[in-house]
Design the sequence.
């Protein structure tokens, strides 16, 4: 069976090596100005958070959205009540650093760099691009690497969403002081999704963590089910970009553009 994740990680090694030749790590470090933990500050103010993803393509399903560009999606999301934006920089999803930088210029919402981070270079690069948070996928990192990358992100003033897929990943994440735990409902081998993955892992996470359910949310009923189960928010890409009305779906998943927000 095709292992899409393994393919992406192997390609990512080549991409990072090429990037280092164009702009060495020392230069990226100098260009990475400290951030201000804007994602966690935003999420702490809200009873429910929608991280809306500008996702044009899936490695498993091909092109998902042709009606809008990444920047157009970002504008719709912001105007429709999203708490934060997730922007892909991996080519398997038609993402790029240029897309991220373009969205950064047009919005003040917190931004998550969505990528497959395997090297410290990518974390400095994320901050250089203006990212407020990075995704750290437990499945592709060793426990030591995960801890190192978590503290590196924090040292740069960025939040880190530590993504887990099963009990083994979750144990690794819980052995760190990570604030954000992202439960991915997508099987990283087959890329199929099921919300039952969040339902199964959620009781094991315990208090003191912010839980974001990722992938597989198709409608407001799915979002409400996850909220009632105890999730603090969702990260949605495909369910938004394939909706007949992206703005309306964004409002529905963010619960009427902030109706569930805590008072300041």
Sequence:
């Amino acid at each position: 069976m095709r292992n899409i994740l393994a393919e992406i990680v192997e390609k990512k090694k080549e991409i990072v090596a090429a990037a280092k030749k164009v702009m060495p790590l020392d230069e990226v470090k100098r260009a990475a100005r400290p951030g201000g933990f804007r994602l966690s500050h935003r999420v702490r103010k809200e009873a429910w958070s929608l991280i809306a993803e500008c996702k044009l393509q899936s490695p498993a399903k091909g092109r998902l959205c042709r009606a809008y560009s990444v920047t157009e999606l970002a504008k719709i999301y912001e105007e429709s009540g999203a708490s934060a934006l997730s922007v892909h920089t991996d080519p398997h999803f038609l993402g790029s650093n240029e897309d991220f930088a373009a969205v950064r210029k047009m919005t003040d919402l917190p931004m998550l760099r969505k990528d497959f981070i395997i090297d410290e270079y990518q974390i400095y690069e994320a901050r250089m691009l203006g990212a407020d948070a990075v995704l750290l996928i437990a499945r592709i990192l060793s426990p030591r690497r995960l801890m190192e990358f978590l503290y590196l992100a924090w040292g740069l003033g960025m939040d880190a969403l530590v993504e887990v897929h099963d009990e083994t990943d979750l144990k690794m994440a819980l052995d760190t002081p990570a604030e954000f735990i992202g439960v991915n409902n997508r099987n990283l081998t087959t890329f199929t999704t099921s919300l039952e993955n969040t339902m199964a892992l959620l009781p094991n996470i315990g208090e003191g963590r912010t839980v974001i359910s990722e992938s597989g949310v198709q409608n407001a009923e799915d979002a409400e089910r996850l909220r009632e189960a105890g999730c603090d928010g969702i990260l949605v890409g495909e369910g938004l970009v394939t909706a007949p009305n992206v703005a309306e779906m964004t409002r529905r998943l963010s619960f009427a553009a902030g109706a569930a927000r805590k008072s300041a």
Notes: The chain has a mean pLDDT of 93. The chain has one domain: 4-258. The longest strand covers residues 49-54. The chain has 13 helices and ten strands.
